[in-house]
Amino acid sequence: MEALGTGDFPRLRVGVGRPENGGDVVQHVLEPFGAGEEAKLDGILGRAAEAAVTVLSHGAKFGMNRFNRKP
User: Fold this and answer.
1) Which of 20, 21, 16, 15 is CA-nearest to residue 51?
2) CB atoms within 10 A of CB 55
């Protein structure tokens, strides 16, 4: 955003879940993946790649309508 001078562009974000029992969100985001999370990582990254290709091929609105929900 600093290089472009704006935040007005489409972004693709990948969710990392929430900490258990109301824990610290920042710490949760920055800590390494747990064993259960690592097992899901290939599928999550595959879906993120598919979302990126869809947005580039069909536009942000189409991509958001297709991917902004739980699989």
Assistant:
1) 15
2) 19
